[in-house]
Amino acid sequence: MTDDFLIKPDPSDPRLTRKVMGTDHEGRAIETTVVVERPLTLFLNGQEIVTNMTIGDHPDYLAVGYLLNQNMLQADDVITAIDFDEDLETIVVRTERETDYEDKLKKKTRTSGCAQGTVFGDLMEKFEEVRFDGNARLNTSWLHQLTKKINTQPSLYLEAGAIHGCVLCEEDRPLVYMEDVGRHNAVDKIAGYMFLNNIDPANKIFYTTGRLTSEMVIKTVQMGIPILISRSGFTAWGVELAQQANLTLIGRARGKRFVALSGAERIHYDLDPTALEDEPERPGRKGEDGRSGWRKKQQGAV
User: Fold this and answer.
1) Fewer CB near the last or first residue (10 Å), C or N of the chain?
2) What's the average model confidence in pLDDT over 83-92?
3) Which residue from 165, 158, 190, 189 is spatially nearest to 179, judged by alpha carbons?
4) Which pLDDT score, from 0 to 100, does residue 125 have?
5) Coil, strand or helix: which one is 139?
């Protein structure tokens, strides 16, 4: 497997999955793997902000990224401490700047991303100030290599399903691969990683396994990343917001195929698609006998 990753999923981590007994469609007893989710309550200084359901890995990145993407942390904020208590399922981010978001917490708008995803009402004010220049670049050869490397990387998704993934990339290299039960959580983990490690977003690419919704576009723009890619499709508002910010928005990226609905001027076609084979059938999640459980269901439905 590629060594490009700085952080990648660890499906062998016993904290993240659990074996559960059940019954299949033929009435047979089976043992299957399910993802574990647990609550994490986030405090900013002395104020409780939110309780997220998460798989529990990288709580520091999740907390910082959430606060950044909700405009509760500023780019020039100095974090003095991050205190995580696993037993109490709490994490406290402490800053030099005094903070008070009581009024802000009263005006939340739920988004389509996932059940816990929220975007606060004033996010659009900042969003409307951003318009990416055309200096970023995406070669189609990079896109092909990224999708191949990401989709063959061992992950919780392939092990147990019920999970979303997001990947921070540079050229044809996937760097930071985060998963979580909510796609917004995976995004926030990457945002937190970038902030705490002073990562320059200007030459980066963001990949997500899920839909290209308004929330995904807003958060990608919030992070300053000019290119957003997904295997999945688009929502109309997601496309409209991407065009407004001049974000390169690419969906349905599978093998040699993709669709760009915004920022296509950054794409450089250095790969001949006729010389490539279509993407092979996607490997399914492991079934109880080691074969692809999803694939067997498809075969049985034919």
Assistant:
1) C
2) 97
3) 165
4) 66
5) strand
Q: Which amino acid makes up residue 56? A: G
**Distance, CA of 25 to CA of 56 (rounded, Å):** 32
Give helix then strand counts, H and E, for the chain. Answer: 9, 16
Instruction: Count the residues in the chain.
Output: 302
* Residue of 144, 113, 148, 140 lying closest to 220 (CA atoms): 113
Instruction: Find where tokens 């576009």 sit.
Output: 217
**β strands within the chain, DSSP E:** 17-23, 29-35, 38-44, 47-54, 79-85, 90-95, 108-110, 118-120, 138-139, 164-170, 173-180, 205-208, 227-230, 248-254, 257-262, 267-268
Query: Does residue 122 contact residue 103 with C-beta atoms inside 8 Å?
Result: no
As given in the structure block, the two tokens for residue 165 are 């993934």
- Rounded to an integer, the average pLDDT of 189-195 is 97
pTM: 0.85
Instruction: State the number of CA atoms in the 13 A half-sphere of 29 facing the CB.
Output: 2
Q: What are the contacts of 80-87 at 24+ separation with CB within 8 A?
A: 84/59, 84/60
- Pairwise CA distance, residues 240 & 214, whole Å: 9
Strand bridging mode 227-230 / 248-254: parallel
Pairing of strands 173-180, 227-230: unpaired
**234: which 2 tokens?**
């688009």
Quote the CA–CA distance of 16 and 36 in Å, as a whole number.
5
Q: How far is the C-alpha of 254 from the C-alpha of 256, rounded, in Å? A: 6
Q: What is the spatial distance between Cα 40 and Cα 35, in angstroms, rounded to a whole number?
A: 16
> What is the predicted pLDDT for the residue at 4?
80
Q: Are 208 and 185 in contact (CB under 8 A)?
A: no
Residue in the structure block whose two tokens are 């299957």: 32
Distance in angstroms (rounded) separating the CA atoms of residues 152 and 280: 11
